[in-house]
Amino acid sequence: MLLFLLALITSLAILVSFKIFEKIEVSTPHAIVINYLVAFILGYFYQPFNFQKLPSFDWFYLSVASGIILSISFFIYSLSIKYFGISITALSGKMSIIIPILIGFFLLGDPVLAHRIMGIIMIFPALYLLLFETKNDKNKITKLKYLIFPILLFLFTGCNDSIFKIADTYFLLGDNANIYMYLTNAFAISLVVAIIFVLFQKPKFLKKQLFKTSLAGIELGILNWYSTYFFLKAIRFLPLTLFIPLFNISFVLLSVILGRILFKEVLNKRKIIGTFIAILSIILLSL
User: Fold this and answer.
1) pLDDT tens profile 53-91
2) For residues 35 and 226, what is the distance between their CA atoms, to the nearest angstrom?
3) From CA 139, how far away is CA 157, in angstroms rounded?
4) What 8-state DSSP symbol labels residue 169?
């Protein structure tokens, strides 16, 4: 249970960190670059390996794909939190479980279960209620411009989970050494993608931000690696059918609570109903 709590706390800390970065004027894009450098170093510390041999592993190209998607997702994650808050972002990310489940149905031969079909159907009204503003909402026009971020987060998170599911099913086979190498290589690729993004976009960066941004990147990298590390450790000690629903629902509920307490995020009636439907959908999909 300790590993479960550590996985949950570190995952929530990433969510909260992005919101805090915005308030203390951290350069988030540069912090993301540092984050992937730190996550890569930690991964290599846990499982050193010969880089030249990596392409010989069957899972190598899947790991490269994971790294690219992870990096893009982190930038999207930060933008979704900025414009929609941590509650909606957490729900969008966790509802993406629909994508690996569909991959499981159609490609991996997973059984088609009635409660999961119901969960899939419920995703769509939940997304509508959570993301789309009504005519009376004051922020409708502003939010409409940024609606792409939680939607892309939903798609990218689901795609990355699907890639890892395929890699673990066919190549990693639950072996810790392979999983750590897979993730460490993915973080290395994420670092390269993040550097390219920053070089091309040239986000504004002031000298006075250097110290705060460096510390923020280090903190984010530690959380990024250990949230994954604790998650993979915890999942070995609890039945999958218990761990996944418990983790997802705890993450969503605590995100909503933290958003309300720490950042005064308000959910109107539509979003409360959408949150309830989303949580029920996540439970059904996780079972």
Assistant:
1) 889 999 999 999 999 999 999 999 999 998 888 988 998
2) 12
3) 26
4) I
